[in-house]
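Practice problem 4.
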């Protein structure tokens, strides 16, 4: 059955690779991956992460792209078409809805966090953090904390940056597949890699580049398996392994509908395996390069690599404030964060915009404006969670931001990934799957992928899901 996307197609295979890489590359690669590697010992975490990407995540990503390529619509309508085609229950459309809603909810708080990075660009560019050079060591941390707190505790400031980020996102999405999405990523992704390489070059000039390199690639599984060491004893824990598996899954934007809808814009003759492998390679490269930037800077300034979520917004500004040319390279670093966030944000909203257009009731511009307004409104819950509603914790001691984050990241995404693996691996006809992959069902590569998707991936994703909801606690 041949379908044609009403939204148009990518002009080339490279356009899809740039777009899907942009969807996968985000704050998680540049902000989260380095601090998680720092917390779990560096090299052992990195090698575990890479193995999980290849064995668990790549098969799911290929399956999700293939579903979009076959359905040629938004995730919602693609799953409706494919459920009918495979004579499965109409309830499979809920997989499409789950991905689209998850991406929508994630963008509502993602735009607020991205607004922090946007707000830090003028702070770094104006040399605000250079003041730490002349401060007593006891005053530096309180000074940097005060700048961050003055941002997140001020709802007016947060709303302003949140609004600006949503407006930029909607302008890009409103232009359509070629005029908006493709044009945006064609500029942003090369710019992102150029900034990355410039910062890596700078990191190589720091005194402790080799220490940072060694930290990233020295494989010591004791640090991964015994993350809770103290002076009395070391406790064996699987937290590091599960964290690496979870980071690999979530860093590739799986289960959000983004990869499926981008797959819908692939030309019929495009090789799913080749483009997906290229995306996974590019996404993983960004995470590794981010570590090679951050850890040498951290070690050269005597800072703590396992500083946690404050590594980017509290720890690194101290380093940029003290180092030569710190104003320039600090500004470039936060520009990098903004570019990464924008490339992800346009993919998070695209499934909903595409579905609205497919209803026939909205033009792309009106669908983009409507979606942007709703995301902006939902995002206010995250804005207020850091200030005027910080004490409002309606469920499990979580504020509204933490609740949305928990629901999407810990439940909706792994569940969607598991269902994708089941639908493609167990319910779709092998002939259809092979046809969309442009592969023979008898080829060696296809058989390996199919085995991983049917058996290994569901097991791995189930472990992540069960851990996330506290079964192993």
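Answer key:
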């Amino acid at each position: 059955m041949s379908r044609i996307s009403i939204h148009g197609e990518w002009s080339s295979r490279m356009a899809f690779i740039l777009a899907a890489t942009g969807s996968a590359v985000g704050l998680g690669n540049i902000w989260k991956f380095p601090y998680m590697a720092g917390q779990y010992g560096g090299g052992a975490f990195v090698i575990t992460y890479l193995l999980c990407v290849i064995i668990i995540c790549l098969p799911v990503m290929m399956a999700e792209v293939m579903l979009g390529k076959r359905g040629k619509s938004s995730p919602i309508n693609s799953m409706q078409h494919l459920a009918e085609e495979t004579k499965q229950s109409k309830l499979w459309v809920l997989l499409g809805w789950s991905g689209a809603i998850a991406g929508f909810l994630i963008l509502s708080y993602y735009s607020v966090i991205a607004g922090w990075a946007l707000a830090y660009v003028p702070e770094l560019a104006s040399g605000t953090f250079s003041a730490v050079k002349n401060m007593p060591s006891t005053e530096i941390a309180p000074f940097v904390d005060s700048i961050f707190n003055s941002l997140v505790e001020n709802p007016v400031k947060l709303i302003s940056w949140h609004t600006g980020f949503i407006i930029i996102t909607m302008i890009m999405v409103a232009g359509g597949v070629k005029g908006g999405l493709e044009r945006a990523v064609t500029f942003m992704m090369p710019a992102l890699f150029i900034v990355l390489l410039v910062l890596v070059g700078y990191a190589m000039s720091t005194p402790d580049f080799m220490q940072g390199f060694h930290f990233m690639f020295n494989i010591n599984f004791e640090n991964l398996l015994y993350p809770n060491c103290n002076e009395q004893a070391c406790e064996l824990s699987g937290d590091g392994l599960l964290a690496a598996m979870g980071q690999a899954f979530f860093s590739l934007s799986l289960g959000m509908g983004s990869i499926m809808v981008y797959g819908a814009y692939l030309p019929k003759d495009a090789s799913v395996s080749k483009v997906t492998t290229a995306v996974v390679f590019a996404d993983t490269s960004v995470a590794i390069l981010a570590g090679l930037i951050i850890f040498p800077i951290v070690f050269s300034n005597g800072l703590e690599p396992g500083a946690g979520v404050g590594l980017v917004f509290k720890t690194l500004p101290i380093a940029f404030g003290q180092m030569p040319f710190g104003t320039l390279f600090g500004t470039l670093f936060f520009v990098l964060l903004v570019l990464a966030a924008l490339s992800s944000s346009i993919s998070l909203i695209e499934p909903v915009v595409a579905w609205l257009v497919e209803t026939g009731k909205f033009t792309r511009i009106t669908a983009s404006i409507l979606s942007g307004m709703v995301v902006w409104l939902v995002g206010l819950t995250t804005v207020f969670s850091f200030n005027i509603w910080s004490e409002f914790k309606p469920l499990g001691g979580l504020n509204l931001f933490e609740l949305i984050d928990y629901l999407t990241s810990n439940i909706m995404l792994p569940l969607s990934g598991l269902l994708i693996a089941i639908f493609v691996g167990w319910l779709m006809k092998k002939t259809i799957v092979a046809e969309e992959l442009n592969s023979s069902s008898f080829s060696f590569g296809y058989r390996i992928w199919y085995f991983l998707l049917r058996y290994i991936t569901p097991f791995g994703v189930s472990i992540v899901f069960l851990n996330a909801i506290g079964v192993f606690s």
